[in-house]
Amino acid sequence: MLCGCAAAASNFYNFKPMTSFPAWYFDESGMAGVDFEDAKQVEVYDRNQSISSPEKERVLVDRLGITERHTVIDLGAGTGNFAIQAALAGASVHAVDISQPMLTYARSKAKGVGAIDLKFHQAGFLSYQHQGELADFVVTKNALHILPDFWKMIAFQRMIDMLKPNGTLYLRDVIFSFPPATYESAIDEWIQEVAKPEGQGWTTKDFEAHILEEHSTFSWIIEEMLIRAGFEIIEANYIAATYAEYLCIKAS
């Protein structure tokens, strides 16, 4: 998850202040929703990640074919479940997130399981400056929705620039594939289906805040952006009317 901003305190993090951007540039540190500068909120977030357990992320690593030969960028790494599993598979992994508490939490988890080849960068979709070898994989899950659509397009263009020729992008997020005319019933049904009681996961209030304050959009908008940015969509899976995943390659 890409969220709130603070200066990194040690050389473990690669953080460069955003000093070269114009005044109109989008500020990712102002993300709506939960305060991920609060360490307790980060712990709650980690517990609530039912779709991002280490076991499920290992399945995704295997599905993508990530091995020790690969360089991986995880944008919106959150508490690090995917990045850690990719590192345990032997890949050179860059875990990127705006929130230092998220990265601190992820670092502790990585250390606990011996995930060594893992670099942490305090930055966002629009500010991360990749150094060194281009990536074989860029992965972003449940984070892109913090950006309005204009800035999603900019983010996709930046991802293209981080990838090797024929490199892979994996995207998963809250993305709407229901007909626009049914939006009221579709959103209400989604919230009723996924919301949990207080203390057992994300609540009705959490999902309502997502719709009110964040920027999930329609699948056909995302797909046009991906194509215009220079990706070829290999797979488009509509997991539900409110979730989708895309497997893309950098078009030659």
Describe this structure in words.
It is a single chain. By secondary structure, the chain is an alpha/beta fold. The protein has a single domain, classed as Rossmann fold. It is built from 8 helices and 8 strands, in the order ααβαβαββαβααβαββ. The chain has helices at 39-47, 54-64, 81-88, 100-113, 149-162, 183-194, 204-213, 219-229, and strands at residues 71-75, 92-97, 118-122, 135-141, 163-176, 217-218, 231-240, 243-250. Strands 1, 2, 3, 4, 5, 6, 7 and 8 form an 8-stranded mixed beta sheet that branches. α2 (54-64) crosses α3 (81-88) and α5 (149-162) runs parallel beside α8. The protein is globular. It starts with 38 loop residues before the first helix and ends with a strand. The model is unreliable at 1-18 (pLDDT under 50).
